[in-house]
Design brief:
The structure holds 2 protein chains of 2 kinds. Chain A is mainly alpha-helical. Chain A has helices at 15-19, 26-57, 66-76, 79-106, 128-152; strands spanning 3-5, 8-9. Chain A has a two-stranded antiparallel ribbon. In chain A, a hairpin with a 2-residue loop joins strand 1 and strand 2 (8-9). Helix content of chain B is 29%, strand content 14%. Chain B is elongated. Classes of the chains: A mainly alpha, B alpha+beta. Bound molecules: iron/sulfur cluster. Iron/sulfur cluster is lined by residues 61, 150-156, 173, 176, 216, 218, 220, 222 of chain B.
């Protein structure tokens, strides 16, 4: 534990504070997934830009060519590549739909209104509406990923 | 009745290299709170346990600590609701440790003060030497009432994942108070208050994890206050314009 000066010790949780939702509420878990999926999507988009620019005019050819296409599809067109794409569908749908919930909340919607407190108190901002929307994001993501898996692994044309 | 296993994180930054967990056996009794257990350990087993408390009734906000992994008030948490066998008491996260369970709330209070947590009126003379009252309707009161219950215990700030990584973030308590005063029908300082929070370390650092509301012992629901505040920061318009604030009301002469 590092010192903060004045005989005190720093106790800020740092990265583990936002990565570890243990002991906290359901919405906190959604928060962690939202952030982690955001980083994963960013990494995917950077990789995706890389491989498409590679195909269009990268070191293999001066423009779109059969050889560069074959090279790229060699990386993606296998079980591991498909699994990654299924995960991409999963995280993009979750991140997008959960993101809509967050945008709506930031505009003051689906939160409930301030009112007098009656005990036992349940915070209005953590009531059913929010939870239902998080579950909707999870269900949509799982359904979308299952559909993508069926297409990629050959069940659907 | 079996003794309670009370585990306390002991750490004096002046003397110790690192924290250590020390276990105390505390005789249980019905209705015992975590604060009761800690006071027993301090009074009868080890006088050197550092802890802060005052009112013992969830009104002062002094005894906030991490109990069994979650920020709670020690006086407001019964041993039985934690299973009754083992209680682990640690200092609140995100606050510097002074000793054992006592944390430094100095920067927390500074952030509270920085949002101008009081009614701001353009007519300072009237505010200092009032000639009447600023009235509120029951409807206006209910828009802010729950946010006024804050006892500044710091539990919300301790639970907040943004505070964990950003020292400059005001934290849920201060942001909620910024909303509470700006939404008050008697206030005229909303525009300045919300403009000061429209920056990358301000209100937009909140990503609505909701833990603040989950741990708040007073039903303040800081997450609600912060989301309601965001709409006003986004549009740059406070909840009500200056000239819509309550006017000075003078009681009519009784004529008697
Ligand atoms: S908002 Fe609640 S948890 Fe936060 S300081 Fe106020 S009373 Fe404590």
């Amino acid at each position: 534990m590092s010192s903060e000066g004045g005989g005190k010790a720093r106790n800020r949780r740092g990265l583990s504070g936002w990565l570890n939702p243990y002991h906290y509420n359901f919405e906190r878990w959604a928060y962690v997934f939202q952030r982690v999926t955001g980083i994963a999507i960013l990494a995917y988009v950077i990789g995706h830009l890389g491989d498409t620019s590679f195909f269009v005019g990268g070191p293999i050819g001066t423009g779109p060519s059969q050889s560069s296409w074959t090279f790229i599809s060699g990386i993606v067109e296998n079980s591991f590549g498909h699994l990654i794409l299924v995960l991409v569908v999963l995280v993009v749908i979750f991140h997008g739909t959960n993101g809509l919930r967050l945008i709506a909340s930031e505009m003051g919607l689906i939160l409930g209104r301030p009112a007098s407190i009656e005990y036992p108190y349940k915070p209005r901002s953590l009531r059913l509406g929010q939870r239902a929307l998080i579950w909707a994001a999870i269900i949509l993501a799982v359904v979308g990923a299952a559909w993508a898996a069926m297409i990629l692994f050959g069940g659907l044309a | 009745m079996k003794d309670l296993k009370l585990v306390v994180q002991r750490f004096d930054p002046v003397k110790d290299a690192s924290p250590k967990m020390v276990e105390y056996a505390v005789p249980k009794r019905e209705g015992m709170t975590v604060l009761d257990a800690l006071l027993y350990a301090r009074d009868y087993v080890d006088h050197s346990i550092g802890l802060r408390f005052s009112c013992r009734q969830a009104s002062c906000g002094s005894c906030g600590m991490k109990i069994n992994g979650r920020p709670r008030l020690a006086c407001y948490t019964q041993v039985e609701e934690l299973g009754g066998e083992k209680v682990v008491a640690q200092p609140m996260d995100n606050f510097a440790i002074i000793k054992d369970l006592v944390t430094d709330l100095g920067s927390f209070f500074d952030k509270h003060k920085a949002v101008t947590p009081r009614l701001v009126r353009e007519d300072g003379e009237e505010q200092e030497r009032p000639t009447g009252e600023y009235l509120m309707t029951p409807g206006e009161l209910s828009k802010v009432l729950q946010f006024t219950y804050c006892i500044k215990c710091g539990l919300c700030t301790s639970s907040c994942p943004t505070v964990a990584t950003d020292e400059r973030y005001p934290g849920p308590q201060a942001l909620t108070q910024a909303y509470r005063y700006s939404a008050d029908a008697r206030d005229q300082g909303g525009a300045e208050r919300i403009a000061a929070l429209d920056n990358s370390h301000g209100v937009w650092r909140c990503h609505f994890a909701g833990s603040c509301s989950y741990v708040c012992p007073k039903g303040v629901d800081p997450a609600l206050g912060i989301q309601l505040l965001k709409r006003h920061v986004m549009t740059g318009k406070p909840p009500h314009a200056k000239d819509e604030a309550s006017k000075v009301w003078k009681a009519p002469e009784s004529g008697r």
